[in-house]
Specification:
It is built from 14 helices and 2 strands. It has 310 residues and is mainly α. A two-stranded antiparallel sheet has the order 1-2. The longest helix has 27 residues, at 203-229. The chain is globular.
Amino acid sequence: MAPLRRWGPVATLVVLAVLPWGLARHQLSLLTDLLIFSLFALSLDLIMGYTGMVSFGHAAYFGLGAYGSALLLIHFEVPIPIALLGGALGAGLVAWPVGYISTRATGIYFAMLTLAFAQLLYTLAYKWRALTGGSDGIAGVPKTALWWGGPSLVEPRAFYFLILVSFLVAFVLCRALVRSPFGRALQAIRENERKFATLGQDPRRFKVIVFVIAAALAGLAGALSAPFRGFASPEAMFWLLSGQALMMVIIGGIGTLVGPAIGAMVFVLVQEVLSSYTEHWMLFTGAIFVLMVIFLPGGIVGAARRRFAA
């Protein structure tokens, strides 16, 4: 198990760096999509797996990041990194008042509040046609340069490596966060919030901070998605995407960081394969999800850990 932990991440990184050179355009596009949703699932795991807060509206921040990035790229023609930063910060700023209000509740009430705010933001994006394009969304989102006058990111392989670097940086930062005193405080809140409060700490302050951080990371994923797909639409904020993110986290393994990334890859690949055979792919995806919850309650990572520990 120790050699796997030591060399597994290195081998994975090498594979992700080499794969684009041997893939067809469609396959590279799928791999890029996998990394975007891996980042999105990773952001949800911060609040769900390490703090015990189940959000039904996490897609709202993915959509906000997509819109923020799209508007900056179309109207101001900024370099891609600035658009990514703008999308992430925009999502985090909106998440602050939402988190401040939502964390007044716990359990299912917190989940329903996040869903209510997400639906409110979705409706706003759907109706504010002058800014968001309404149901049509914003099309023609360009892939600009890495910096002013710098190399262009139009080439698919170049944009893939930008997303790969973004994911790796986010993963390393999240790993450092959960291993820090702040991360241990989050896990203490997850285990026993009342006991944590009796120690003289305010759990709401920690919950709001991690909620904003998770929203900013989801916004970053959305900000990457807009130029990659070439458009941003209200569908990126719909509750269905939030449900899919929950499935990704549970399939991979809650509270593991690497698990949600694996879960996202499994979910997207299963969706890609099944949708090529039948239009009822969601029915089969749901069945697979139910079976995995029953037979792999700890997710893929949990099952792997039990297997190697045995």
